[in-house]
Amino acid sequence: MALSCPLQCVRRTTEHVASVANHVTISKKGIEALVSSRLSEESVRGLDLRKWDETDHLVETDQQGHHHPDVRAQYMLVVDAVNFCFWPDDELEYEHIAGNLKASVSENPSCISSESLATLTPLGLRALLKWPRPLPQEEERARLVREVGIELGRSFGGQAANLVRAANQSAAELVRLVVAHFPGFRDSCVYGGSQVFLYKRAQIFVGDLYGSFRGEGLGKFRDIANLTMFADYRVPVTLLELGVLEYGKELSGAVAAKEVLEPGCPQEVEIRACTVRAVEMILEEMRRTFKDASLVPMSIELDWFLWKEGEKRRDVSDPHHRVLTIFY
Length: 328
Ligand SMILES: Nc1nc2c(c(CN[C@H]3C=C[C@H](O)[C@@H]3O)cn2[C@@H]2O[C@H](COP(=O)(O)O)[C@@H](O)[C@H]2O)c(=O)[nH]1
Known about the structure:
single chain; 5% strand; binds the ligand Nc1nc2c(c(CN[C@H]3C=C[C@H](O)[C@@H]3O)cn2[C@@H]2O[C@H](COP(=O)(O)O)[C@@H](O)[C@H]2O)c(=O)[nH]1
């Protein structure tokens, strides 16, 4: 893949940050221990790592009857347009965004037409997500949804499904199209004078299409395995608990104290880049040690597992790092 490939850009730039990071380290010993215990070949055999959790999502088994695939693609793009920074509201979680929007779409699919999205107000977004009080960054979230509606109308006949079809079943191409057309998805920063790419919401949009369409139709991508994990704020906590990531003393203190870090600060970039790199190193260790190569998951499948582990423990785990961001 040429460096013009957005996924190659994510892998190479995060690997570079991990190699020079000084607030965060990746423990090779921790990875070896993990891949001979919780994620050993035997353990993985018993896990259903390929399973995408569709509970809160608008998928065809939806009791309210089948939704048109185009509506489901539109729904997923709206979910991932606002899939970031829930922590300022103690009760707001991802499942509220996905589940409540699903309810709104089941009541009235036209609520996510590009015309509706293009003129969505903060109060309109609150109603769409059925949230009883102002959402964190509510004005900005509504702006990001309007950006999607306007650009879908301008370039894709109002349909996210047309954006997906324009990628011709390439995950990398769809990520490239999403970041080209929607500035809100351009999740990159500058570290030590060089640009670092994470593209978390663009990648998770593709991963969610793949999961919700079970790899068929609008979820069919020949290069889905090239997606990286999604650099959020939940998986780093799981990797810390598993002994894979280690934070320096100063960063540990700041995170434990729930200090809000500046977007783009070295600590934030190192946490996110080392999280991406650590997942790739876990997969490399699996490929190195597993006899049955078919048991080695894709980056996004390992991501789903680690994220769900983190969600299960979110009320007992140490605090995650806090950044007031629009990217994750
Ligand atoms: N790395 C990764 N981060 C993910 C997801 C998801 C949802 N996907 C699941 C849905 C169906 C499938 O089963 C997928 O597993 C949300 N997030 C991020 O977590 C963060 C915390 O959120 P909370 O704890 O609620 O506050 C927030 O940045 C949010 O953007 C994922 O899969 N991977």
